[in-house]
Amino acid sequence: MKEEFWMEKWNREDIGFHQQAPNSYLQEFGTQFFEAGKTVLVPLCGASIDMKWLKDQGLNIVGVELSEKATQWFFETHNLELKITELDGFKIYESENIKIYTGDIFTFKDWDNIDYVYDRASIVALPKDMREQYVSLINKNLSHTSIFMISFSFDNEELGPPFSVDSEKIKRYFSDLFEIERVKEVRTENPPIHGGVLPYIKDSLYFLNPKVK
Ligand SMILES: C[S@@+](CC[C@H](N)C(=O)[O-])C[C@H]1O[C@@H](n2cnc3c(N)ncnc32)[C@H](O)[C@@H]1O
Q1: Exposure of 34 by Cβ count < 10 A (0-12 exposed, 13-18 middle, 19+ buried)?
Q2: Which of 7, 11, 65 to mutate to test the pocket of ligand 1 (most atoms within 8 A of CB)?
Q3: pLDDT tens for residues 38-56?
Q4: What span, in angstroms and rounded, lies between the C-alpha atoms of 169 and 93?
Q5: Rounded distance between C-alpha atoms, residue 106 and residue 141, angstroms
Q6: Domains of the chain, residue spans
Q7: Residue 102 near ligand 1, beta carbon < 6 Å
Q8: Are the beta carbons of 206 and 151 closer than 8 angstroms?
Q9: 65 Cβ closer than 6 Å to some ligand 1 atom
Q10: Beta strand 146-153 with 116-120: parallel, antiparallel or unpaired?
Q11: What is the pTM of this model?
Q12: Least enclosed by CB within 10 Å: which of 12, 91, 115, 130?
């Protein structure tokens, strides 16, 4: 997916992926997974309300998002006072305990001091070649973190985004460096996404914990 694809989506407000309420898996399992006071990276964060939920649990948030409109949307929605700075080609929107780096995750460099990754609809947003680069970024820079990953899967390798990322792929991508636990999976018949052509979609929650801390 090219940058313009996502910019266009935000500009047209064609953002079916954007949730109005915090993710149900996050609400059900987030408090047992995340420890207050630590830092969570939210790659491809959009304007996700999940970042507000995590912040309200006492975590520090580092988001990375291509679209400045999405970043502004987040801060406006939650009425947060903000400061804007620039670093390494990123425009950083910052408020108490939250920083959103506006720019491309593939040029992000500030990997230090991250304890967790929260991925909801991020790995599935990327086509195969970019997804493999994203997996490499995680394995190279974040193999000491614990990852709360919500992925979607269905029977079609071509359609996307969201693309299908099933448990076999999660295993292939991450099992060298992480212990993988599939915590919950919900199957929905005839989901409305992709023009209603899919017979089903599975929403899966994985916990990835480092094999070596
Ligand atoms: C499917 S949305 C998911 C957003 C968010 N995780 C959520 O749950 O609402 C994917 C987001 O990734 C952003 N994005 C796509 N490619 C990116 C990249 N290379 N670097 C940073 N953000 C990117 C898009 O602009 C979009 O907001």
Answers
A1: buried
A2: 65
A3: 999 999 999 999 999 999 9
A4: 34
A5: 12
A6: 3-12+22-210
A7: no
A8: yes
A9: yes
A10: parallel
A11: 0.98
A12: 12
Distance CA(19)–CA(77), nearest Å, equals: 13
A 10 A CB-CB count for 11 gives 11
Strand partners, 146: 116
Residues 194, 157 contacting (CB under 8 angstroms): no
**Residue 206 alpha carbon to ligand 1 centre in Å:** 19
**Is 164:194 a contact under the CB 8 Å cutoff?**
no
Is the minimum distance from the CB of 54 to ligand 1 under 6 angstroms? no
Nearest CA to ligand 1 atom 27: 46
pLDDT tens, residue by residue, 121-158: 999 999 999 999 999 999 999 999 999 999 999 999 99
Topology of the domain covering 3-12+22-210: Rossmann fold (3.40.50)
Distance 17 CA to ligand 1 centre (A): 10
Q: Binning pLDDT at 50, 70 and 90, where does residue 164 land?
A: very high
